[in-house]
Amino acid sequence: MRRIYLLSFSIFIFTGLISYASEQNNTHDWKAGTSRVIITPEQNMWMAGYGRGRPSEGTLHDLWAKALALEDADGNRGVLVTTDILGFSKCVSDRIRDRLKEKYDLPRSRIILNSSHTHTGPVLKDALYDLYPLNEEELKKIDYYSGILENKIVALVGEALSSMKPVKVYSNNGVVRFQINRRNNNEALVTKQTNIDLKGPNDYAVPVIKVENQEGNLLAVAFGYACHPTVLSFYNWSGDYPGFAQLELEKLHPGVTAMFFQGGGADMNPVPRRSVELAQQYGRELAAAVDRVLKEEMKELSPRLVTAYDEIELSLTGLPDAETLSEMSKNASGYPKRWAGRLLDKLNRGESLMTSYPYPVQLWQIGEQKIVTLGGELVIDYAIRLKQIFGQDLFVLGYSNDVMSYIPSARILREGGYEGISSQIVYGLPGTWEPGIEIKIIQKVLDLANENGIMIPQSSLVQGVR
Ligand SMILES: [Zn+2]
Question: How many A from CA of 426 to the centre of ligand 1?
């Protein structure tokens, strides 16, 4: 009798322990929340990315901002925000991130603000103003829209944070090959179907993060690619190929939030281009690559989130003197004339030109998945170099937190051309980047890894930065 009592008591305790353990498991999983908001401008206004002659005229499909909030087993939070815009200017990004800190206690390390770099989105405040012939009325519209966008993103993050549920998180890389290295290939020749000797470097990776609920149903997919969304150059709002890729994935998986982030696509173009059908084709190709990854086995990520962020001062060199600017403001035309005139006015007011810029560098580790995010129009060399150091499964995002200019590698800076030199005027900067830019940025990523206990594979250190 006593033995039976003891046995049933032990069974009771044992079952209790099992149910306690499974509850503990639940509380030791990831939590995630998603949210989305349309950010298509409500009025026609100036479009970003190309030197156009007039404002927008309509909408092909809506522009979106989307958020994925993650919380690890210890309550550490991070929010990825993706947007169908050309790029966040520093003033817009800083204001959003200051408000996120104030409202939700999220420091900059815990927020990624990525822009898809669509060239059929709106101009934001203080972004590439010299490129566009803006009058007072258009400037007012840009200010108004930027304010609305800021409010929407702050609310979007709040919504994602307040909708968190237990989930499982997975990652893996897929591949799709429509990016063409635009510096090293002639676009006219690439559009032919035969006799193409394509030159790199390239990085065809399609990084994918999958979020599933406890029942194994897909809730969200965040995916990337390194390639300019420059299929379209017309006057209708659109997310270009990333917009179509998101639409396609949300059609394949109804109810799912599909989010696109831009990689190091600064020297990559989709070729051939310039039709809605081509933008849709590339969108579907990218969605198919993501869908393949979702269906195959993915790496399940342990519920531990590490986030790190810092800014480094990058120096500008070769600043023009007043005489050069005066000459250019008289003899040049278009955006170089506006650039020279604006800088000359600055000098005439007794102000000095900018000689350095605070550049954002960020490192996340979601379980076993390392993610580097860098500001500006990041060229593919950075993705290749960082993968040599951290391993091929690393995710590299450019166009994050502040898009202040192109970010050339040492090679591209040496070679010159648009991404190395002349695009600095398009972005309104007074000089070109210092020769040590690549080493400085990579070194900062390594420092953030070391300071935050993020492992760097030993084998890669041998061939790492020198
Ligand atoms: Zn660009």
Answer: 10
Instruction: Quote the pTM value.
Output: 0.93
Residue 195: predicted pLDDT: 67
* Calpha distance 261→398 (Å, rounded): 9
Nearest to 225 by CA among 153, 170, 287, 296: 287
Q: What percent of the chain has pLDDT over 70?
A: 92
Lookup: tokens for 300: 């399940």
Quick one: pLDDT band at residue 190, thresholds 50, 70, 90? Answer: confident
Distance 84 CA to ligand 1 centre (A): 14
Using the mean position of ligand 1's atoms as its centre, give its distance from the Cα of residue 22 in Å. 49
Whole-number mean pLDDT of the chain?
93
CA gap 239, 221 in Å, rounded: 17
Residues 6+ apart with CB under 8 A from 420: 406, 408, 412, 413, 414, 432
Binning pLDDT at 50, 70 and 90, where does residue 23 land?
very low
Contact in structure between 268 and 182 (CB atoms under 8 Å): yes
Polymer length in residues for the chain = 466
In contact, 445 and 465? CB cutoff 8 Å: no
In terms of Cα–Cα distance, which of 383, 380, 376 is closest to 429? Answer: 376
Dig out the tokens for 420 from the structure.
Answer: 């190395």
* Residues whose beta carbons lie less than 5 angstroms from ion ligand 1: 377
Only one residue has tokens 């995010």, namely 373
- In 3D space, the residue among 82, 84, 108, 85 whose CA is nearest the CA of residue 95 turns out to be 108
